[in-house]
Amino acid sequence: MKKMKYMILLLCAMMVATTSCDDFLDITPDGQVKRDPLLSTPEGIEDAMYGVYAQMRQQTLYGQELHFSTLEILSQTLWCYGNTGVTAMGGYKWEHSSVKSVFEGVWTAMYKNISNVNSILDAPLVANATEYPYTLYRGEALGMRAFMHFDLVRLFAAQYTVNPEAGGIPYATEFSLKTPEFESLAKNYEHIVADLLEAEALLADEEDYAGSGNFMLDRQIHFNLHAVRATLARVYLTMGNNEMAALYAQKVISGGKFSLKEKTEVVNDLAGVLSRKETIFGIYFPGFYTNVSGKLQQVTSYYSLDLRDDFMELYERDASGLDFRTMAYFSESGVGDDVKYRLCKLTDIYELNNMPSDRPAELILGVNLIRLPEMYYIAAEALLDSDYDAALALYNDVRMHRGLDPLEADKTLTVELINDERYKEMIGEGQTYFNMKRQNLPILSHDGKSTYNPADGIYSIPVPDVEIENRN
Predict the structure, then answer these.
(1) How many CB atoms lie within 10 A of CB 460?
(2) How far apart are CA 253 and CA 258, in angstroms?
(3) What does the alpha-carbon distance between residue 2 and residue 211 come to, in Å, rounded to a whole number?
(4) What are the backbone dihedrals phi and psi of residue 253, each rounded to the nearest 5 degrees, phi first?
(5) pTM exceeds 0.90, yes or no
(6) Spatial separation of the C-alpha atoms in residues 195 and 118, rounded to whole Å
(7) Which domains, from first to last, does the chain contain?
(8) Which of the four, 19, 82, 374, 418, has the lowest number of CB atoms within 10 Å?
(9) For the chain (length 472 residues), average pLDDT per consecutive 10?
C-alpha cells in the first residue's frame, strides 16, 4: 500500500511536469513583460519550475547537444563518417553553417530558459521569500540560473585560469526585455558563485520537508542542496580553487544521501534512467530513448554516432581486475577484425526490447547531469598536492566499485591517471570536453592521426551571430 501511494504521487508530479509546465511557457506572449498571475500561488510557482526543467530536455540543450552529441563530438569521443556537419564540428570549424546553427540553438534556448527562471525569481512570493516553501523555490531557481550560466560560460568564454579578465557572457538576473550587457569572465564567476551560495543557504533545511508534498518527491529531478554543492565543486575546480573544490565535493560525498553502486550494479544503471544510488541531479525525460536510439543505438549512415577508433584501449590499458563498465557501456556486433562497438550506456533496455511495462516502477526515466563519481574525481584532483593519501583513497574507491584493483603500490597517482578514470566513467555524458578545456589539453583526433592543440582555437567557440545582430 505504501508503495502504491508513492507511485500515485509520483505519477501526479510527472503529469504536471509534462503538461502544465509547457502551458506556463506560453502564458506571457513574446514581446511583453508582465507579472503573470500564475506565479501568485505555490501551485503556480511549482508549475513554472516544472516548465524550466522540461525546457532543459530539448534536443538543443541537455536532451542531446549538451549531453551525448555535440560535446562528445568536440572531445573526439564520437564521430559520424561522411556527415559534413559532424566533420566540421569535430574539426572545430566554428564558421561552418551547421556548426553555427547548433551553437545558436544552444545559446537561444538556454537564455530563454534563464528568462523563465528569472520570471520565477521576480515573483513577489519568491523574491521576498523568508519561509518554506518559498525559500525552497528561490533556492532551486537560483541554483538553476547559475547552472545554466556556468555551462554557457564553459562553452563560449575563455578558461578562467588562463585569463580571468577575458570577455565573458551576459549574466541575466532580471526578467526583462532588455538584454544584459556582456561582462568580464571574472564577473561571470562572481555571479555564479553568489547565486550558488545563496541557493545553498536557502536549501539548507530541505531534508526537513522531504515527502511533504508532490514537489518534495524525487529530489533527484530538482536542483536540490546536493546539486548546488556539486556544482560549486565544479565551479571552484574550474576556477583553480582546489581548496574550495575539495571542500564542496567532500560535502556531497560525506552527505549520506548518495553512495557508489557496487560493481555488479553497473550494468544498465544509466540506461535511460537516473542512477538509483549515484544521481545527484538529473532531468525527468520519458522521451530520452527516442533521441538516444537514433544517434547511438541504431547504425544509420551519415547520421548515427560511432565511437572513436581506439576507445577500448583506454579501458584495457594497465587494467587489473574486470572493469564492469566495458560490459555496461558498450555493445558489440561482428567477430574478429569486424567487431563494431556502439555506446549503449544510455539506451533504455526496456524500450529497446519492447518491454517497457517490465521496467521496475521505482526507476525514473531521464538524463543524468551530475553523478557521485565525478565528486570523487574532483576531490582527488583537488587534494592531489595537499593530501596525497586522501586523493589516492578517493581514486581507488571508484576503481574498486567498478571492478578494478587499486592503483599498484609502485605507481604514483597523477592528474593524468585521474583524467583517464574520469574519461572512462563519464564517457557519453558531455563532461570530457569541459574537462579538457579546463586543463588546456590537446585533443587527439578520433582516428588517432592528428592532434588538435589549444592554439588551434579548439576552445574558442564564438558567441553566435544572432546575439551580436540583436544588439545592433
Answers:
(1) 14
(2) 7
(3) 13
(4) -60, -45
(5) yes
(6) 12
(7) 2-471 (1.25.40.390)
(8) 82
(9) 39 43 38 60 95 97 98 98 97 98 98 96 95 97 98 98 95 85 97 98 96 93 98 98 98 97 97 97 97 92 94 88 95 74 95 94 96 98 98 98 96 98 98 98 97 97 92 77
8 A C-beta contact, residue 173 and residue 191: yes
What's the residue count for the chain?
472
Partners of 55 in the β-ladder: none
Residue 137, Cβ density class (10 Å: 0-12 exposed, 13-18 middle, ≥19 buried): buried
**Closest by CA position to 174, among listed 35, 273, 292, 312:** 35
CA dist., res. 52 & res. 267, Å (int): 31
* 179/463 Cα distance (integer angstroms): 14
Report the candidate in 249, 277, 272, 274 with the shortest Cα–Cα distance to residue 261.
277
**Torsional sign, CA 390, 224, 191, 92:** positive
Q: In this structure, what C-alpha cell is assigned to residue 179?
A: 538584454
Please, are residues 404 and 426 in contact by the beta-carbon 8 Å criterion? no
Give CA–CA dist 228/128, Å, rounded.
Answer: 21
